[in-house]
Amino acid sequence: MNPMSLKENRVHGRPMYPISVYHMECAPGGTVLECHWHSEFEFILVTKGRAVFQVGTGSFELTEGEAVFVHSGEIHAGDPVGEAGCSYSAVVFGAELLTGSMDLVQEKCVDPLLQRVCRLPVKITGAAEWGAEVIRLLGRMLESSAEETASQVLATKGLLLLIMAQLFSQGEAGEVPKAALWKTEQIKTALHYIHEHYQRTIRLKDLCLLTNMSEGHFCRVFRSVMQYSPIDYINKYRTQQAAKLLERTDKKIAAVAMDTGFENISYFTSVFKTHMGVTPSQFRKGTAGA
């Protein structure tokens, strides 16, 4: 099973300028960021409210003015905290933006990152001087990246290099354990299967066969990476897809339940309320009046 469909298909920037900036508003109870991965690096800066972001095997609660750094190829996702919703800005960039040739930046910074022999901080706050500087520089970069004039392109790349310099000042040498990388790749395979087959019955033993693990070992590994049990994650993903159908179509709630893999409408209602804080009918009424 190839996990590539879990890889985000969106093209970030273009070959000559591989960077994109996104500003996202997340309604209360809604999904902040669906689970995915991509080959680029990313900074996520919360600009309003609170959210919990999963990055790799870690879980990080962020408030306004805090950020996370997402390594190339790392699984990441986001969930809201509280009932107020949140906003965030994301900067997604290719490693080639950091250097254009085989120079010392490539040798001492880019290669160690891509080879996973260097670990950089993930959560960035203003508690330490270096973190406060990164947050300040991120804010300036978000402003400078609005257009592609000569001065703004130079400013964006320069600010990105300064940000990475701050991260490297706090980085640690040392290869990411192969066991951790293996676990992540196996879970990507399981996630791909879940995302492709959520409308049908998904059996735990099928996920175990795909990942060559026993049921007990698979459940432990899945929870260690995703912060959810396999069943809880399947229900969460199905709920996210159901919410989209409730918001974007006029399908009956029973049909939405069936279309997203729930065979029992009572169970669907219970699971939906657990993850969204409201029943499916309340969610539809709320989005219709928004």
UniProtKB/TrEMBL annotation:
Any Pfam family matching the protein: HTH_18
Keyword Repressor: no
Stretches assigned to the HTH araC/xylS-type domain: 188-286
PROSITE patterns on file: HTH_ARAC_FAMILY_2
Molecular function per GO: DNA-binding transcription factor activity; sequence-specific DNA binding
Swiss-Prot/TrEMBL keywords: DNA-binding, Transcription, Transcription regulation
Protein name: AraC family transcriptional regulator
Organism from which the protein derives: Paenibacillus mucilaginosus 3016
